[in-house]
Amino acid sequence: MKGLILLIPAFFLLHDLVAQSRKITAETTVQQVTIFSSGAQIHRVANVNLQPGRTEINFPELSSQLQQQSVQLKAEANITLISVTTSKDFFVQRKIEQDEKNLLDKKTDLKSKSEADNKLLQVYMNEEQMLIKNESIGGQAGVKADELRQALDLHRQRLTEVYQKQLEIGHKINDELLELARVDAQLKDVSKKRDSIKYTITAVVESKETRAIKFELTYAVKDAGWFPTYDVRVADIQQPLSMMMNANVFQRSGETWKDVSIQLSSGNPSENATPSRLQTWWIGYFDPSISMNNAVLAPSTVGGRIVDENGQPVIGAAVALKGSSNGVSTDANGYFRLNNVNGNTPITISSVGYISKQITVKPGYYSITMHQREDHLEEVVVVGYGSSSSARDYSDDRELRKQRKEEINPVAVITQYQPTNVVYKIEEKYTLETDGKTITIGIKKVDVATQYEYFAAPKVDPSVFLTAKILNWQSYDLQPGEASLYFEGTYLGKTYLDLANAGDTLQLSLGKDNSINVSRKLVKEFSAKKFLGSNKTDSRSYEIIVKNNKKVPINLILQDQFPVSTTKDIEVDDAKAPDAQVEKETGIVTWSLNMTAGQEKRMQVSYEVKYPKDKRVVVN
Questions:
Q1: How deeply is 318 buried, as exposed, middle or buried, from its count of CB atoms within 10 A (0-12, 13-18, 19+)?
Q2: Model-level pTM?
């Protein structure tokens, strides 16, 4: 009995020690943020004073976009980590759920009242019709004057009452509809609050000593990211191309990152990390008719970026071929890619809060601006590069912003190369609010050795285009992105650096140069039609004249073409293009011209097409 008496208090003492673990709320600060193309990883630290025994540590007020499976907790100390759990604020969540329930009940009650009042209004409207139709009094015999007066007074009195009731019920229905609209707006606000409930991470640890311990907490969040854009400038074709790489950073994680170090990673944790597997390749007989049809109707791609008046991406905008189900939505950076688009096809763009628009496109890249429905909106334009501007009217500030960007230099950045991505570590610290606004940070400026080359195909367009060829572009650690082009101080427009399809040479079009003239004329004395037996022969000869009006020498790629027969009944003979290279399969004729300042050159291209005289062939 004595042994049992001694064991009972020992048992309860052990139970109390386990059940009554200490609880601590730890305050964390964000020290570093690694931002991916989609998502971000937050690194927080907290200093906690532990005593011997078991302690429950709560790390509250964390991002509402926290991904629970990504939580990591570290501490360089001799402690045992019992468990780590994540949960949303229970009391806030219960309150929001109760508010939502009350609003839904109110909405149901309002709908019931509105339906009842609409039915009552219909009753009075039916009574009005009955009173109007029942106007004949006394039949053919007629009525006395007093009886007529009484009948009219009664009819007027009742009809007036019916009209008053209709007005009262109509006002009541309008009030109910307005209240329903207010309730719907409140439900939307509640839904936003539900999405903004902060997470709390709870860790249970056991320590054998009293000491201060530094905890490191990392976790991933959604609804954040960055995307690169470029400013590409060419002073003249005698100087290297200047390229500024800008990082456009945004976040809507539900927490403010105050005065933190930023790392930008080219990786994307949300992408599938599993390698693709080959499937069985079934092979059959070749059908040339199917091949030709596919060649003619080959699908094409239209891509681009949709922004608002302030240059901010329009997320989730619907882009679709007009009158079809072929459509996509813009991503978190405003980009879209629409496949199976033929030339000169209308597409529609729409988004909540913006004026819908329709444009006609052909395969290529487009930068599209959408306008908000509100007439008066202010916006905070945040320009990274270590500084920010105040709220102003962007429509009156385009030129100022352009001049300011021309004077900006990049911040100090350390580039780290990892096995699967590139990390840009920015040495300056930034404060990023959880408002979705884009902060632009210039992270790299390079002068690129470039081969400038002009191009012209006067058969389809007499204009001469300047192109810039970057041969060793892989050494500059570029990322795919939109580029703004400037030539000799003039803004030319936007293009897209599609590095995946660039090959060994990255080529940029810098627009038209009107100081170089190209013309293509038919030489009539060498162009004629001849008939011989059952065949007809069409001869064509063209002269192409190029004049370099610039004060500097140029390199020009000039192209024309010979027709290519698709049937043995049509023969292309005597094809001539002196000093040119000819691709036999395509018939493309190419001259590579080196021209001094003020020089003029003339090229000839000629050919004959022989075909049955009862057929029609276009040979121009």
A1: middle
A2: 0.61
